[in-house]
Here is the input.
Amino acid sequence: MTENLRPSGAHSTDQDPTAYPYASSYGTAQDGTAYAGAAGGYPPPPPYAPTTRRRAKRPVALLAAVAIAAGVIGGGTATLIGQLNGQNSAATGSGGAVNGTTVSQSSKGTVAGVAEAVSPAIVEIGATSSAGKSTGSGVVITEDGEIVTNNHVISGAQQIQVTLSTGRTYTADVVGTDPDKDLALIKLQGASGLKTATLGDSSQVKVGDEVVAIGSPEGLTGTVTSGIVSALDRDVTVAKDDSGGSGQDQGQGRQGGGQQWPFEFGGQQFNGDTGEETTTYKALQTDASLNPGNSGGALINMDGEIIGINSAMYAPSSSASGSGSSAGSVGLGFAIPVNTLKADLDTLRAGNGS
Here is the structure.
C-alpha cells in the first residue's frame, strides 16, 4: 500500500477549489496566472497593513475623541445651566436638551415685577375744598373700594374723586379718619371687583431693604420710584389738620397745587409751619423719591407687600425760598408703618378716630 506523503502544512492540489470561494478573486494575478508559492491559490499576506488604511484610522479615532470630549463638556454645561435654573440633572432629556427659563418670565423680586403687580391697587385722589383742589394717593385694600390714605390728603374735603390706574373715576366718601396717626379710610361709590394690595409686616423691615414707592406726584398717576429703607422708628411730627382748621390752613396742609405737607423732625420744621396742633408717629425713612402727591401712596417691599403709607418728604428749597414752589425729592422720605395702619383699621371702619 502506497501512502501519499506530503510535507506538514501543505495543501492538496486536487482539493475542490469551490471550497474556497475567494480563491478565484485572490488566487490569480491580473494576467490569469496563479500567484507563485501561494498555497491553494491565495496571495501571500502583506508584511504589514497598507499605509492608506492606517491613515484612515487616525481621523476616525480623532473624531471619536472629539465626540467624547464634546459629550463631557456638553454634559457639564447642561448641569451648570440646570443648577442656575434651579434644576438638577434629571431635568435634562436623553438628548442633552436643557429646559431653561428666560429671566423675563419670572420678574418677582424686581422693581418691574413689583410695579406690575401692585400698580393696579394704587389710586390718585383729588380732594376739593374751599381752599382749592389738592392731589394725593391711596391704596385699595378691598375689592368693593375701601382705600387707605393720609388724613392730610382728604382733610376738610367737600368732594373726593378717585382715579384708578385704568383711568376710571369714582366718587368717594370718607369712612373714618385718625388725625393723630395721619390716616384715613375712604370708600368708592358703586365699585366692585377691584385689584387689592397685600398688607405686609413692617416689624420685619430692616435697614437696607429694597423698596418701591408708587403714587401720583404732581398728578402723574402711577409713578414708580425705588430705593432702600434708610432708617427705622423716626419720630416725625406733622400738622394735625382736621376739618376745624381754616380754609387756608387746609390748603397748605395737603400736597398738590404747589404746596407741600409740612412736618417736623429733630426739632426743626420743614416744608412750612406745622401749626399749633401736631401729632408725632414712628416712621420708616426711605431714599425712594417722594414728591408732592405721593402722600397716601404705598411703600412696598420686593415681595409686593405694602410695608408703609408714604406721608412726608423733605424739600429744602420750598421753605428756604418762601415762594411755595414745589421742590424735588432729596432722598429724605417718610412712611407710616403698615402695622400702625393694621392696628387702626377697625377704628377707621367704625368711623371713629383718636
About this structure: The chain has seven helices and 15 strands.
